[in-house]
Amino acid sequence: MEFRLRCASFAAFASVAVPLFAFSAPPKPTVAPKSAAKRLLVVTVTKGFRHSDSIPVAEKLIAEMGAKSGAFTVDYVRTDADMAAKMNPEALKAYDGVVFASTTGDLPLPDRDAFLKWVADGHAFIGVHAASDTFHGFKPYLEMVGGEFKTHGPQSWVTCRVEDKTHPATRNLGGARLVYDEIYQFKNYDRARFQGLLTLDRHPNDGTPGDYPIAWCRNEGKGRVFYTALGHRPDVWSQSWYQAHVLGGIRWALHQDNARTNSTTTAR
Ligand SMILES: [Zn+2]
Questions:
Q1: Which residues pair with 98 in a beta bridge?
Q2: By Cβ atoms counted within 10 A, which residue in 84, 242, 262, 264 is the most buried?
Q3: Strand partners, 181
Q4: Predicted pLDDT of residue 35
């Protein structure tokens, strides 16, 4: 009797205890560790012309690109105070790269030389549109970007020829991309110092044959630089192929995507 009671007690205990034992097992991870995501500063301070319609779109979409891809998180530098706090040499140690999204003019970087050294030490610089219309009086910055904004004419339809069909920024764009945007022309660039990604073979407004680079990439020491002149218009930002172009450039500059494989897939 006593034995049966003990058994009954054990059985009653076991009926509750088994699921508890099961729950005590360590849970299996179902998602990749968040630590893989890089940290990106999106800089939108302007001291010259301000692209007030496309900058908010850029800020929102870059954050969405990072969240959807899981590749990076973003923080913003929108004011001089943000720049002083987040872009001094000590604060930059918390980040893996920067996006200059249509910055203009002489930005109040706390230490311009230290910033360039930070890039060359292995970090990412992504320049969009007016990033080349920034620091005209600071040649080392322009040399790091790879070219300097010279002028632009009226907005126009252009056919961007894909120079590198294997690069993450352009491998999904097919052989050429038709786009309506404000098209920059450059000075102080040397094709030997960058890898062309998108280019025009004729003047964007008068059609004169020539060499008009639109997007490129380059190594700066151990760092990587990606620049695209496109992105003046908010509706350019809204197009999936452009987002794929920018995201591919960001991920390449962050050393997250080194693949240079041919693809026949075009961006949706
Ligand atoms: Zn513009």
A1: 41, 125
A2: 242
A3: 156
A4: 53
Comparing C-alpha atoms, which of 182, 187, 191, 164 is closest to residue 245? 164
Q: What is the pTM of this model?
A: 0.85
Please check the confidence at residue 1 and state whether its pLDDT lies above 50.
Answer: no
User: Where would I find the H helices in the chain?
Assistant: 2-24, 54-69, 80-86, 89-92, 112-120, 139-145, 234-237, 240-253
What percent helix, strand, coil does the chain show, rounded to 5?
35, 30, 35
- If you measure from the C-alpha of residue 161 to the centroid of ligand 1, how many angstroms do you get, rounded to a whole number? 20
Task: Measure 129 CA to ligand 1 centroid, in angstroms.
Answer: 7
Nearest by Cα to 132 from 218, 201, 238, 64: 218
- Residue 260's pLDDT band, with cuts at 50, 70 and 90, is low
Pairing type for strands 184-187 and 195-202 reads unpaired
Backbone angles phi, psi at 51, to 5 degrees: -85, 75
Rounded distance, CA 63 to CA 75, Å?
Answer: 9
Which segments of 127-219 does DSSP mark as H helices, in order?
139-145
How far apart (Å, rounded) are the C-alpha atoms in residues 101 and 52?
11
Q: What is the pLDDT of residues 203-231, one digit of tens each?
A: 999 999 999 999 999 999 999 999 999 99
DSSP string, 26-89: PPPP-S--GGG-EEEEEE--BSS---TTHHHHHHHHHHHHHHHHSSEEEEEE-SHHHHHHHSSH
Q: What pLDDT was estimated at residue 36?
A: 74
Contact 262, 171 (CB under 8 A): yes
Q: Ligand 1: distance of its center to the CA of 32 in Å?
A: 39
Query: Which residues sit with Cβ closer than 5 angstroms to ligand 1, an ion?
Result: 182, 232
How many C-beta atoms surround the C-beta of residue 14 within 10 A? 10
